[in-house]
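Researcher: Here's a chain I'd like modeled. Treat it as a single chain, no partners, no ligands.
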Amino acid sequence: MAAEHSVSSQGFWPRVDYASFGIIYGSVTVLSLIMALGNHPEKPLKSAAILFGSVVAISLAKAFAEVMSHAIETGERITRRSFAEVWDHARTTLIAANLPALLFVISAIGLLTVERAVSLTQVYCTALLMLVGGRVGWRIDGSVLSAVLGALFAGGVGLTLAVLKYLIH
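Model: Modeled as a single isolated chain. Structure tokens:
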């Protein structure tokens, strides 16, 4: 938990670095769920609940699995603190789910079409992947070229999932 406080007080890039696992995991999960929702989800509130609820469930599963497997490996007791520390890292997956869920809620009240909510969700998750990919390229080589290549590679994953949605439906 101390890591969270020191990371959050150090600025944007340390927070991105700390959340990178969750950003990637959450973005790919949201893009996969969008693919499974169909071409024109008819019930945007249900879609919002499915997106957000699924990412929360997956995050809880990750945290639970880490705590339980650590207890098996080490024989240490499971405490609230150990679960809180693991959850602190796992909850970063929600970064990728919050805005898409909000977009579907906005769609449900008629301020946005469902199709636009889907498209904006795909753009958002792909942009998150590009952000992390660019950060990886920069951290590895410290060069703009590596950052751009990293962003393009990671963004390509998001774009592939977005295109697959349209090919499937």
